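Following up on my earlier message about zinc ion. Here are the inputs again, as you asked, copied directly from the submission form:
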Amino acid sequence: MGESGYTERWLETGSGPGAVVRARVTQADQAIQAAYRKWLDHATECPSCQDGAARECTVVQPLWDAYRAAQREAL
Ligand SMILES: [Zn+2]
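Thanks, got it. Here's what our run produced:
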């Protein structure tokens, strides 16, 4: 439960080029990332959201709410 695989994550080592490490990813992490991507995809393509008028966008609100809900589930 919760652990479903690995992902590659960038690791800042503080000096040198850093490193890509394999990190365990939980299902909650994946749900958060998936929700965040949907929100980001919309926000980068929606004229209203790009205009800073996200409060008036009826599409972005549910996406953002889903993202926040996924974060809460991960706690
Ligand atoms: Zn929008």
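One observation from looking it over: Strands lie at 3-11, 19-26. Hope that helps, and feel free to reply on this thread.
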